[in-house]
Amino acid sequence: MSTVADKLAKKSSSKTSSKQVRLRLVYVDFWSAVKLSFLAAVALAVVTVVSIFLVYMVLEATTLLAKMDELFVAFTDGTVSLTSFIGLPQVMAFAAIVAILNLIVVTVLGAVVAGIYNLMVKITGGLLVGFTSN
Predict the structure, then answer these.
(1) Backbone torsion region of residue 34, taken as left when φ is above 0, otherwise alpha when ψ lies between -120 and 50, otherwise beta
(2) Which among 49, 71, 82, 117 has the fewest CB atoms less than 10 Å away?
(3) How far apart are CA 91 and CA 94, in angstroms?
(4) Torsion angles phi and psi, residue 21, rounded to 5
């Protein structure tokens, strides 16, 4: 009786012919690039909001913000407090604004890169990519 492992061993010992294919990337679909850059920007926006939240929580837990507030109050003679400007709602609003601006910029940048690549292909002939089969 022959097992599956024996059959695979016999197949792997025989030489398979590998064929190489060389292709040129001569066009990037504009809307596909926009959709892909939008998805990447959404992921980056989520990471931005979560990381800003975590940094704020670490600063609160280590009482670093309270110490900075004491220093700020000492310099301003008690007229202005840092905690009136930096709270969780303000920090999360800032994170949301940064994430939304980042979303717009990365999406537009993906569209611009796709357009520039499509114009550049007319001059250079495209990107040569090689593939092989094992």
Answers:
(1) alpha
(2) 71
(3) 5
(4) -125, 135
Nearest to 48 by CA among 101, 87, 85, 90: 101
Q: Give the pair of three-digit tokens for residue 68.
A: 């900075």
Residue 56: its H or E element: helix 30-61
- Would you tell me how many other CB atoms lie within 10 Å of the CB of residue 73? 15
Alpha-carbon gap, residue 113 to 32, rounded angstroms: 12
Using H for helix, E for strand and C for coil, what is the string for 15-48? CCCCCEEEEEECCCCHHHHHHHHHHHHHHHHHHH
Is the four-CA dihedral 93, 95, 98, 102 of positive or negative sign? negative
* Token pair in block for residue 125: 């002939």
> What does the domain layout of the chain look like in residue ranges?
24-126
Question: Where residue 66 falls among pLDDT bands split at 50, 70, 90?
Answer: confident
pLDDT of residue 21: 87
Give the DSSP H/E element, type plus range, for residue 120: helix 88-124
Q: What's at 3, amino acid-wise?
A: T
Q: Closest by alpha carbon to 108, among 26, 28, 40, 25? A: 40
